[in-house]
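FAQ

Q: What does a record look like?
A: Structure on top, sequence underneath. For example:
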């Protein structure tokens, strides 16, 4: 019987159920653990190879992505197409021209993860099919595992304070977005934080855009002047306050937070959570280190 439950007891689609059953992983493994195991298995396969090219290129080669085209007219960030009717025939990857480098790398890693589904559930993937949202979510998770190896991130993050500067530094090292880095830190239980983006409206009020690392609730600030003051300042704002939301019964529920706020072009971004550092500059951070080329460093 197809595996029907994720780690959170969430129902999975028939496609993902077959994917889990055929992965060779423990039947009690969550979907996240399965995609992590498959990605990390590629690290081990490449451990004896000379990784002079990038880690991402190694994955592209091993997953039979034979053609990559960057095109201007594309309705999404990227997509992958089978060249033939079997996994071994290879794939063509299309990427949208003009995307930032970090976004394009994440898209490539995401599309590589789709090849696991083509390999394990060919009867569904090589036939006409609609997008599967659970597959998309797992490919996002797998892309973060691919681009941000756990062992390397743990070693880098262990030396850093929990703050925006550290988040930006780590995102720069691994060439990923702030949200991708935050989700990876959260998934590995390195940080216990959430990242939210608040868009500034014409009248000066703020509306919540996305929350990464936590529940997407209609959060409101008990004191919204905190956001306005952060918008008017070029410096990082820090402090303690309450945020709140109304539940399905109309009860207003409050949550105490420690926060750090930075302005960006369309609003402010907020890091909130536990053990946030009050470090005010990047002077405490190590010098920039390039992405390692030794794959053994990535898997240890």
């Amino acid at each position: 019987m197809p595996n029907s439950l994720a780690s959170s007891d969430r129902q999975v689609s028939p496609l993902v159920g077959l994917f889990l059953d055929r992965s060779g992983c423990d039947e009690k493994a969550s979907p996240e653990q399965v995609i992590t195991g498959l990605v990390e298995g590629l690290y081990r396969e490449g451990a004896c190879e000379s990784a002079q090219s990038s880690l991402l290129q190694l994955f592209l080669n091993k997953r039979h992505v034979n053609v990559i085209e960057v095109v201007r007219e594309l309705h999404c960030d990227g997509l992958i197409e089978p060249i033939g009717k079997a996994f071994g025939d290879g794939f063509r990857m299309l990427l949208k021209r003009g995307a930032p480098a970090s976004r394009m790398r994440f898209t490539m890693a995401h599309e590589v993860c789709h090849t696991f589904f083509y390999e394990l559930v060919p009867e569904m993937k090589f036939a006409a099919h609609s997008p599967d949202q659970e597959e998309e979510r797992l490919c996002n998770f797998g892309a973060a595992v691919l681009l941000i190896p756990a062992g390397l991130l743990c070693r880098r993050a262990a030396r850093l304070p929990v703050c925006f500067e550290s988040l930006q530094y780590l995102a720069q090292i691994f060439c990923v977005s702030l949200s991708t880095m935050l989700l990876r830190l959260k998934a590995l239980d390195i940080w216990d934080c959430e990242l939210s983006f608040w868009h500034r409206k014409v009248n000066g009020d703020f509306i919540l855009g996305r929350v990464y690392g936590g529940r997407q609730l209609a959060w409101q600030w008990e004191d919204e002047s905190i956001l306005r003051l952060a918008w008017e300042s070029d410096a990082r704002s820090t402090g303690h306050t309450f945020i709140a939301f109304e539940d399905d019964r109309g009860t207003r529920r409050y949550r105490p937070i420690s926060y750090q706020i930075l302005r960006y072009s369309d609003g402010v971004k907020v890091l909130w959570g536990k053990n946030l550092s009050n470090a005010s500059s990047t002077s405490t951070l190590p010098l920039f280190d390039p992405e390692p080329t030794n794959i053994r460093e990535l898997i240890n």
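Q: Is there anything notable about this one?
A: The longest helix spans residues 101-120.
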